[in-house]
Structure formats: C-alpha cells, structure tokens
Amino acid sequence: MMTSEYLAGRLLLAMPGMGDPRFDHAVIALCVHDIHGALGIGVGRIKHGLRLHELLEDVGIAPGMAPDRVIHEGGPVEPQRGFVLHSPEWEGPGTIQAGPLGALSASRDVLQAIAAGEGPESWIVALGYAGWAPGQLEAEMQAHGWYAATGRPEIVFDTPVSARWKAAWQAEGVDPALLSSSTGRA
C-alpha cells in the first residue's frame, strides 16, 4: 500500500478491464492526494453538446477573447461544478498547485481572466471531478484499477483528447495494446 508517497501531479490511467465503464480508458489529472483522500480531473473525454462559449454565457461571462474550446468530462462527482486545470503561472483565489501538471482553479476569476485574454497560457475546462476517500485510491491501485503515470503537461495540454490515454502509456514505455484486461494473484 502506498502510504508514504502521495501521487498529486501524476496522471492516473485506467487499467483495461477495471470494471467501471465510467472510467474505461480514463485519464485523470490527479491534483490532490493526501491523508484526506484524492481529487482528480478527467482529461480523457469531452462533454458532447457543450462548448466553452455556451458555458461562459450560462454563468454570465461574455466570451470575449476566449477560444470556443471543448469542455471535458471531469468526473462523475458534482458534474455541474466547473474546474480549470491550467499552467502554473496564473493564480487566483483558491488555486491549488498540482505539481508538474500545473494548477487547478474552480473560481469564476479564472474564467473571467480567460475571457479577457489575461488567463493562463495553457488550460482546459472540465465539469465534475473524480474523488476518493482516504485509502480508497490506494486500494483501487492494488486491485489493478489504476496506474500512476508521470504527470506530463504536454499530454494534457498538447495531445488531442482522444489520444491522451494511449500517449500517456507510450510515454511510460508501455504499448497499451499489450495490456491485459485481467490480472492474477500469486
């Protein structure tokens, strides 16, 4: 069990056959992992039928200079709650540093800054998050549900959404086509 090493700043990759269809081929940017549990933002799927300009207008922000990007499915918890995973040079109230992946903000301030053209250099917007109680993520990892890959911002911000799971495995030196969907116990 991983009790002394916290994994914030890593990419969690769903193992084939993990058993939960909500996380099939999931890529989760793990932003918080400590004695209280873990919180991550899904960066491997988009929310179809919703784009940034519509979301901004829904929360009363004029889109301004913001490009009309896709919205990510951040996770099954609180799917109406918005998050921005972004490069670390921008910081506002409540921003959480997420190691090599950058930072996480959940306030309107980051959306207003993006619309004004004054936001972070790199960013993605997500609705919802993935959360784990204390010890839950570690147990799921022991059951071969997740792999903690190195947090690589270029995979999150520069790789097409549909290619992130495969690209993260390949960056770890693993051919995902060779991964088994079942595991054994010794």
TrEMBL record:
A Pfam family of this chain:
DUF179
Q: Which Gene3D superfamilies match?
A: VC0467-like (3.40.1740.10)
InterPro entries named in the record: AlgH-like
One GO cellular component assignment for this chain's record is: cytosol
Highest taxon, organism lineage: Bacteria
Q: Which SUPFAM superfamilies match?
A: VC0467-like
Q: Which family does it belong to?
A: Belongs to the UPF0301 (AlgH) family.
Protein name, entry field: UPF0301 protein GCM10011617_11230
